Amino acid sequence: MVFDKTFVAIVLILCCLEASSVLAGSCRESSLCCNGRDSSCVVQKAPINAIIEDLSDKPCYCDHACLRLGDCCEDFKQYCGGIYV
Description:
This protein is mainly alpha-helical and 85 residues long. It has one domain (20-80). The chain contains four helices and two strands. A two-stranded antiparallel sheet has the order 1-2.
């Protein structure tokens, strides 16, 4: 019985971690869409003081300038497209 509870707990933790990584870097989840260039319109994928070892952990932006700069969050065009593209 202890094995079953431990297994269930591990599965739940892994599911939560996976869900949070999917939502990381999302304009929709952050409710951000900004006009022009706005450095405060940023989604941090890693904690602010973390050392970024993986380029996919770099912050992404939900402002119109991200289209020129190439640093948009993955869902920028889908979420903000009708407003700012």
